[in-house]
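Suppose a classmate hands you a notebook page containing two proteins, each written out with its sequence and a corresponding row of structure tokens. How would you begin to make sense of it? This section walks through that situation. The first entry is reproduced here exactly as it would appear on such a page.
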Amino acid sequence: MDNYSGIKVLLIGTGAIGSFYGGKLSQAGAAVSAVCRSDYNIVKEKGIRIKSINGDFDFKPDSVFKKASEYNDTADFLVVATKVLPDIDVVSIIRDAVKPSTSIVLLQNGINIEKEVTDAFPDNEIISALAFVCVSRVEYGLIDHQDYGRVVIGSFPSGVSGKVKLLEEMFKASGTPVETADDIISARWKKLLWNAPFNPVSVIGGGVSTKEMLADPLTESFIENIMKEVYALSVADGHPVDENLIKKNLEDTYKMVPYKTSMLLDFEAGRPMEVEAILGNAVRIADKYGVGVPYLKSIYALLDLINRKNISKNKE
């Protein structure tokens, strides 16, 4: 394994995704520090244990902070692995740690999620990153990696920079499957092809796993129709995905270990769900281009209602 000890990474968020991929960058030899919220005390004291199908490992960040402003170094990569939620102001969270040479990596779900960060930091390189992985946080300091693990990265809005290639090398050094994408927006549409149906249906369907969703022909047809709408949006947006990916996504999900989606885990825990990043933004893009998306609009309306009620109930 190559040694990347001279590379400094500041990780924002140690949920399932941040912990897993931050741990992988640490395995490659990078100096990874982390900004935590509710899990600060546990991560600072014990680090993070990752139970993985590919072999368990521990991730002990070099330093642990409550705020990015406490990080007194210059990060080569500032990796944002928070949920994309209306009440999480990423720009404010990271501002004090962004230096002129810092590349900001948005390792997050959703479509059209980069604008606020690119507007706030026009002189910094923005790298958009997508995780194709079944991973969840069992409890603070304990992550369960169940399947897959590929990450796709690219410069935003397009291209593959030297820093993107360096990040690719580090992931490869840790044994992480990684791809670079010249058109990272198209890659985001590819991921939304899966996220847009499976995440919401897992919640609206009453807490069903991927296997349970596809075991029912009516639900499988419903999921396929949502995917077709996402495909149409990718075409209208000028970043078309391969239409054959609809069939491939269904086939791959059949083979997947039965999995509770991240959105379902958030719902069950009473946490806000990424409704806007995954559905709301897609619906607004549809309105912009005049594309009919009745399935997406229906699940958006239902999930938004469920989300608001769930948040309200857990505030009481």
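The notebook's second entry, a different protein, reads as follows.
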Amino acid sequence: MAKRAHDLNWTIPRPGETVAGKYVIEGLCGRGGLAAVLQAMHVGLDQRVAIKMLLPEWADEPHVIERFLREGRAATRIRSEHVVRVFDVGTFESGAPYLVLEYLEGHNLDDVIVMWGPLPVSTAVDWVLQAAEAIAEAHSYGIVHRDLKPANLFLTRRADGGACIKVIDFGLSKLTDPNMNGAGAKLTREHDVLGSPHYMAPEQLRATRDAGPPADVWALGAVLHELLTGQTPFRGESMPELCATVLTQPPARVSSLRPSVPAEIEAAVLRCLEKEPQARFGTLAEFARALAPFGTPVARESCARIERVLEGGGRTSDLSLPPMPPMESVEPAEEEWPSDAYFVPRTGATSLKTVFGSLLVLGALGMAAFMWMYSSVHPSSEPPRVGVTAPQGSGPAAPRAGAASGREAGSR
């Protein structure tokens, strides 16, 4: 029997403990406001994974538990390589909900900015468009992330050593497709404010449930601004001041902080950060086309994939084969089995002339073979005369070889 919310109570597993019967905890990777992330080893597969579990203080909040589990369900719908993979979703014996995630090695972009400062223009464009690939596919499924920020973009490496950005933490995601809304579709209450204010669009600050795809466009623009300048586009000494700045003030211009950035990129950032959603880029494909010329070939590949995903709806289940070419309509004289088409029909009885001619050809071939074999055995002998006889009374017959040999022997 499932435990009631007020009966739930759990603790964070310690290193060495085995959870769900197959994951051995190795240590704590990090801890946020809602969840802790643990490093663990799958004992059966000998594979390192990350386990994200809800913190115990949220055990009495059913809507938070449901939102946490929905994160896993939302992430598994997206197949882009730029989304962290989810292997399992469930609850421990204690009732603690958990997600088993792909274990990533690298750094989130928040740490990258702290360590490296502003990035080269082409690098910033490449990485933002990789994140946009994942969000474009999410939008095609009616999923809005609502919490895009450098801390939720993870820099790791592909097998070939190339940089790869992974979007993590779909915990605040929202389903906008009515065909996909199920339990938990209305978890966000009217006046809830969820997310990170430095990257939140004005409509999301007013009411999180009103945030649609344009809110993710705003957030990507804010992330690009920070990657290029090392600073967020809006600042404030307190949370109320920050929110008021986002709602009423224009963003800091990229050129005022880094004059070498191309004007077209600054224009793209400013368009993302328009206060009215309809004034922003209509889709992430438009956003990608504006930025791709300033990245490496990786950015152009990302742009092409974003366009294909949004044009095709991103739904692999809708994949269909092209139609068969039209077949010629032929009325058969009589019904036949399909396999009859693989047999050549007979044309009738073989004639006697054909049989007789075949026998003559075979006889000639046999005679030729005999002559060849005889000449091989008796190379110095005169070949036998076959079918030639001197008629009687027509003249002296040639002496036979045996008689000639006898007279020659007598004369000696």
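A careful reader of the second entry would note: DSSP finds twelve helices and eleven strands in the chain.
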